[in-house]
Specification:
236 residues; alpha/beta; 6-stranded mixed beta sheet; 8 helices; 22% strand; globular; disordered C terminus
Amino acid sequence: MTLNAAGQLTRKPLPLDARRVRAAAPSVLKTLQPSYQHEPHPIALKLSAGLPPKVLKAKRTRRRRIRSYFGAVDNIAKVAWTIGARRHQGHLLCGYVMHVEGHRGVKGLRAAEGYGLGRHAAPDAAQCLVFALCEVFELHLEAVPHAFFIMPQASYDLARELMEPPLAQRAPLHTYLHHLLQAIPDKQLFPCVKGRFYKQMQIKLEQLVTSVTNEVVAVDFADLMRRLAVAEVCQA
C-alpha cells in the first residue's frame, strides 16, 4: 500500500516519477521581525567580558549550532538539563547534559554537555547549579522554558529554597545562584534519582574521576562572582 497525493492509503501503484513531499512544519513565528539578532542578557555580557578569543569563539559555535538546527529561538519548546556532581580530590566535579526540545515538526537535540571542577573551592551544593546556569545565559537561552533535573539531593533542596527571596544572610555563591535563578523567568526544578539520564550521568562522572581526560575544565567560582556583582545582577 502507498500514499497518494491526497495523503490517503491506496493499493494502486504510484507513477514511477511521483514523489511524496512531506509538508514543512508550520512556523511558530507569526510576523516578520525587523531583526532576528538576539540582544545578550546583561549576565551573558558580564560572563563573557575579557575572555580569550578562543573561548569566545567556542561559545559562538555552540550558539550557532543550536540556532542553525532549530532556525530560531522561537522554535525551541523547552530545554531539559540533567545536573550531577561527584566529590573528587577534595573538590566537587560538576556536570550537566542539555537536551533541547523543538515545537512540532522539529526533532529534539542533545545540544551540549559540560564538566567542571573548582580546584580552588571547597565542595558546595551550589557549584553544580551555578556551573549549569551560567551556560543558560552564555547560550542566550534564558527566555525559553527550562526544566532542571538535579541529582544531588542537597543541590535540589538548596535550589528550591533559593527560588524564594532569601530570608537571611547567605554565602556569596548561594546569593549568586539565587539571582541566576531569578533571571530565568520560566523554570522548573525536579529531583533526579533514577532513570536513563541519571544512570548516564553517574557512569560519565565515574569515568571522569578514574581516567585521564581533557573533558573536565577548571572553574573559578571566585572569578564568576567577581564578574557579576550581586548588586548588578539585581538590575538585570
